[in-house]
Amino acid sequence: MITSFFAPKENSKTRTRKSERTNTTEEIDNAKRSKTSDSVSNRQSKSKLTPEVNVPTEVEVPPHVKELMSHLTDESWKKALFQYTSTKPNGKFSQLAKFVSTERMSKNKQVFPPPCDTFTALNLVPLHKVKVVIVGQDPYHGVGQGHGLAFSVRKGVKIPPSLRNIYKELVNNNDGCGLEDGIMPTHGYLERWARQGVLMLNAVLTVRKGEAFSHAKRGWEDFTDEIIRLLFTHRSKDSPGLVFLLWGKPAAKKAETIINRYKGRGSSIGMSSSGGSNSNNNNNNKHVVICTSHPSPLGATKTKSPFMGSKCFSRANSALKEMGVEPIHWGVDGPLALKQQQQSAPSENADVDNAKENDQSKAEPKPEVARFITPTSTSSSDADSAAAAATSILIEASDTQCRSDNEQEISDV
Fold this sequence. Notes:
Layout: H1 12-49, H2 63-69, H3 75-86, H4 92-105, E1 111-112, H5 120-124, E2 132-136, H6 161-172, E3 183-184, H7 191-195, E4 198-202, E5 207-208, H8 220-233, E6 243-247, H9 249-261, E7 269-273, E8 287-292, H10 312-322, H11 339-344, H12 350-363, E9 370-371, H13 377-396, H14 398-407
Parallel strand pairs: 2-4, 2-6, 6-8, 7-8
Antiparallel strand pairs: 1-5, 3-9
């Protein structure tokens, strides 16, 4: 029997089944390759259309920054200053906060004002309610004096010489300033100004006891520069302008650099020195800058633009009126009038607010006032003794007073 070395011939049905299986396999492979190429091309096209974005991770705020900023309670300023104070853990503000924390913790150093008063100027005047800006230099470095408002001292503390000259100018220039002719306040507490929109900002916000400028060039200057910058950048085109009262070269130099950046940027700025008149411009975006010498006894009557006789307070009010803004009542005693605010922006609680003001005025005795005369030696001695006694009481109760001040509701005026 002869065996064939050749495979038997395939019939037509077998060939058909093989070809079908081959075609199916090729189709599956082609489909897989197509899907792979499509996914690659989609990824490439997406990468071209959508650039890679580095999502910043949340930065933990250092504890010394949290501690310092915990005393800033006004929400408008907290929101506006958040980026400056919190986005750079090793930045200038962080270094400043660490320095202030170290100074306050030192057993051999005492820092003024108390922690709760560090940002009093901002806490009393929300960002959108600032009308007048007064720039000071350094907090008072005497015991019981500084409390966070430039040039101001609490009731019971002897009025410093600079503030006494400020009162003299107010008394001598009482043209629409809200003071009775010849009457001078008996205390140096300027909170009433702040409640009306006067931002009394020192360039440096803390100081060592008995060491003037001891916290200068540590970072406060940059922080307060940022505050002044925010006064410009957070004002809309329809917002009224600001009035700057710059007393002395340091204040003028500090504000001048920032003010000059915004000349020609949608807001014009009028500069005037002592004795000059304000520009008659009804443009709501008109900022007015009034420059004089410092009110301290060393410079109040000197330079080409002396503080005494400058009429800076009445000029500031005239500028506010031209902008359509309620002027400042520069007196430091008595309840605040709400008439103008109710006319411009009626409040649902206006009657309640008026009732509260009337109740307060009835409950609180009217503060004593004294005519501005030179006291005799006996009265001067008695006054100094009374001021010293009041100061000692104030110092002992400073922490309690800080807590109670922060717990009080800040009413809108």
